[in-house]
# Entry
Amino acid sequence: MSNDQVRSFLRKLAGEFGFDISAAVVVEHQKPRAVTSAFDRHWHVLVGEVDPISGRVLSSSYDHVRHELIARWSEHEFGHEFVHGRHSKAVLAGLVKRGLNDVAKALASFIATNTTLPREGFTHAQHQECKRRGIDLPALRAVVKDIWASALSLQELRDAFGSHGMAIEVGDKPGTWIVQTQEGKLVGALHRLAGVRKRIAADFMSSQVDVVRTAGNDAGEKDSTLKGVPALDLKRQKADVLRKLDHLEEQLHVELSAPLPPRPEPISPKEFAKKEKHASDALTKAQVAQDEAWKQVQRNPKPSWWWALWPGKRKRMAAKSAALAQALAVADIAVQAKQQLVANVHFERRRELRLANAEYKKRLSAHDRREKLARERLFVLEAMRDILANDPGAVSKGFEVLWRQAEQSLQSADDDDATDEAVFDLEATTYPLRN
# Structure
């Protein structure tokens, strides 16, 4: 990153979290990395949590999601490759909300074709623990990756580790292999340090034959013929299974790239405004009639003593007073009815908005379930390809049996647990992860 890019990133952070960039302390650190492809500089940004002038506390809600959003935005702006974060869905929604539709579109396209989340090879606590024991964990992980990529057999793998003063042993948990120093000090889990799936590392280590692990080779071309099954039939079955897998993978990627569902449209604001105006006008009219009825009651003469001497007058005035009182009561009822009409219109508007929000949440939930299922099936699909690569003769079992076998292998391997306790079995105090 150039200095201009760093300033651009800081401006985005300041705008997102609401702090004064001129009051922030920024420190640049430069140090050699374990691998040459990694950038040798990083920055620390120190910001006051409380504004000394306004007294306002720094906005920090959903900070992980917002940090990811700024990172994805900057990656797109700087031309860097996207990193698949753990809050991609929320980040996409945030980008759209902020009007960054181009960034959201590019990120959605990346996520659709990159379903696997990156996993850390070691935690901050494990890094510090190895430091105290004199082990440079990042550099050692780079060595393990190189060894794993170049070794073609178990013996080559063991010899390469031995040349670097390390050995491979079986871990305490099933399917876990660990890397140790010659002094017997634990370094870490083989699959984590090598950056591969736990099942793949376990299958390779437990195999009794050499396995070529190169991405460009078709492992299915190995000479593997089941007893009683012609090789030609196996090839046809494999081709049929691979076609099904390709078709399924295409469907799953389409499902993952599906956009978020649209919000349901409640009654339009114009229609509500029209209803509110009609109800308000009716209430105003009823209130005017009520005021007029009340004025007529007030203007009606009060009874006088001499009316008793004039029976006809007394009778007429009594009838008029009763009629005015009844008219006032009717006007009062009309006002109450119109007030209820106005309240009903407001209630109907709130109800429509509430129902629209509930329906939108329902659609989002269904979208999330479909996306989660698609991701899970992609993992099973990948596991099924691994099974076919290691044992081409397994195609004779049929697609359904292979699918169930792939699901069982994923469950037993527990690959997707980001806090796998079998990664490192360190005895030191656990330190919190730092972002």
Residues 208-229, 415-435 have pLDDT under 50 and may be disordered. The first strand starts at residue 25 and ends at 30.
